[in-house]
Amino acid sequence: MNENKKIFIVTGEHSGDFHASFIVKELKKMDSNIQIEAIGGENLKNEGIKLFCDHSKMAVVGLDAVKSLFSHIKLGKDLIDYLKSEYKPDIVLLVDYGGFNLKIAKELRKLGIEVFYYISPQVWATRKHRMNTIKKYISKIMLVLPFEESLYKEKGINAEYVGHPLISQLPVHADKEEFIRRNKLDPYKKIVGIFPGSRKMEINYLMPIFMGSAGKINAHSRKIQFCIAQAPNLPDKIFEKYIQEFDKITDFDIKILKNQNHALLANSDAVIAASGTITLEATLYNTPIVISYKGPYIAYLAYLLIRYIKFAALPNIIAGKEVVKEFIQHKAKPDLIANEILSLLHNEEKRNEMMHEMGKIREKLGDKIASKEVAQIINRHLQEKPAKPEAKASSL
């Protein structure tokens, strides 16, 4: 009698945990007896998955990352020992989080454990040498951006585009009238959404620039209202500080909306945002967007030295041309951002052209449901995989 198949999933932060939970749902539909354990968070836990460790201990940056280096090393060692001696999975699925996961892949391969990878590290952006690691230690890599497939296949890597998870996971477009009523907005004014990011460093660098942009837009037109999206992981006091400073020098209000990111993104007439996944979300909602980013100059110079592509925004990378304006580092200036937003709000031809290009990007992404595609690939591989020898199975 064949034993149940075993999968172990490794995520490193909330987004990976979220995407992995959809894969788990699909796998359980295909095989109700499958055993799954993970390093993850609340989303996997809510799917009934036993967690080896909560990944909140892993998601650290800056000085905290330096302090946690040894705990990361210990976690990796403990995980390898557990998978080797106790759990003995048929497959380990790594989700995103390249720095940790690629090191784990190397150790797993030494043990003869097959490793699949979902949501590739963005090797095409800054670290192409990682492709060699992927080729050596990963059995199959499942990609979420269409142009990635040819890049990997050129290197002889077993890669497959499975669709972007946002295609199926992005919340349905919220009703605008209800959104305006719920947030006590003016139905006769256009809405500019401001998305300054989800990290404290991003807020500190970008909020003064974005608030300055709002001030300049307001000086040009009083028929525009502004809403700031507050990431759920950030405390109120961070935003209150900037709002209080802003109120001293202006005569109009800016609303802060918590836990309404997608509703704001879908219902904004234009958006100012930090570079990140939100640029692709705006594209799928067909919302005109301007992106900006600024950080320490030393980090920016390092980025310039190692980058392989000239664009920062995902829509531009996918399209292979500038669809969305990018104001990065020294170009991250309130007047430049304000002028671009005003142009998108009032120049109908320009606005329609951007929305048309967004539609073409959406077509490039296709209609594959990523979680289902990944689950099918894994399940198919498990079915083809020979059963473990009885002696080995009983050695526990």
Descriptive terms for the model:
single chain, 396 residues, alpha/beta, Rossmann fold, seven-stranded parallel β-sheet, six-stranded parallel β-sheet, disordered C terminus
Q: What's the CATH architecture name of the largest domain?
A: 3-Layer(aba) Sandwich
Rg: 23 Å
What's the arrangement of strands in the largest beta sheet? 3-2-1-4-5-6-7
Count of all domains: 2
CATH topology title of the largest domain? Rossmann fold
Q: What class, by secondary structure content?
A: alpha/beta
Terminal CA distance reads: 17 Å
Strand content: 15-25%
Largest sheet: 7 strands, parallel
The CATH superfamily name of the largest domain is: Glycogen Phosphorylase B
Low-confidence stretches: 61-65, 390-396
Q: What's the level 1 CATH class of the largest domain?
A: Alpha Beta
Percent range for helical residues? 40-55%
Number of helices: 19
**Overall morphology:** elongated
Q: Provide the residue-averaged pLDDT.
A: 88
Secondary structure tally: strands: 13
Description:
This protein folds into two domains: 6-163 and 368-393, Glycogen Phosphorylase B (Rossmann fold), CATH 3.40.50.2000; 176-365, Rossmann fold (3-Layer(aba) Sandwich), CATH 3.40.50. It is built from 19 helices and 13 strands. The protein has helices at 14-30, 42-46, 62-67, 69-87, 98-110, 130-137, 148-154, 166-169, 176-182, 200-220, 236-249, 261-267, 278-285, 297-306, 314-319, 334-346, 348-365, 370-384, 390-393, and strands at 6-10, 35-40, 50-54, 91-95, 114-118, 140-143, 159-161, 190-195, 224-230, 254-258, 270-274, 289-293, 326-328. A seven-stranded parallel sheet has the order 3-2-1-4-5-6-7, with helices on both faces. Helix 5 runs parallel beside helix 6 (130-137) and helix 10 packs across helix 16 (334-346). The longest helix has 21 residues, at 200-220. It is elongated and about 70 Å long.
